[in-house]
Amino acid sequence: MPKYVVATVDEIPPGHRKVVEIARRSIGVFNVKGSFYAIRNKCPHAGGPMCEGVTSGLVRSDQPGVYDYVMRGEIIRCPWHGWEFEIATGQSWFDPAKTKVRAYPTSVEPGEILAKNPELQAAGYQPGPYAGETYEVEVDRDYVIINL
After folding, report:
1. Among residues of the chain, what percentage have pLDDT more than 90?
2. pTM of the entire structure?
3. Which of 45, 42, 114 is closest to 83 using CA atoms?
4. How many angstroms separate the Cα of 6 from the Cα of each of 45, 109, 132?
5. pLDDT score at 12
6. Which of 40, 50, 68, 125 could cysteine-pair with 102, CB 3.0–4.6 Å?
7. DSSP output for 40-87
8. Rounded to an integer, what distance in angstroms lies between the CA atom of residue 141 and that of residue 90?
């Protein structure tokens, strides 16, 4: 599964988002309370730019006149027609059985791990016996990764 570095952690503070283009897909990366999630920037209803919508929560009620506001900042609303989806899963709460936005697995990885080229390690390559002169490079930031 290819990995794509999309941002440093500090580029997307809690409550914010960044829209990126990966493999001809527009994807919104969200920081929800310190956790990162990625969803397709396309509403399944009419193809609206989902990730440009407002974030909100859901209102829950157990009895008349008593309301709870839950999942604050965890719901994205399509700016075209107001369809709502959970950012973490892409799940619709309007029509959960049939409607969903594509969600992508994300992770946060230290820059020093990315510098070691995990793609070669995963492919089974081993370093040879000889090496040219190299210089130490330090990467001290954490990066948000999307797995497609």
Report:
1. 53
2. 0.76
3. 45
4. 27, 11, 31
5. 94
6. 40
7. ESS-TTT---GGGSPEEEEEEEEETTEEEEEEEEEEEE-TTT--EEET
8. 28
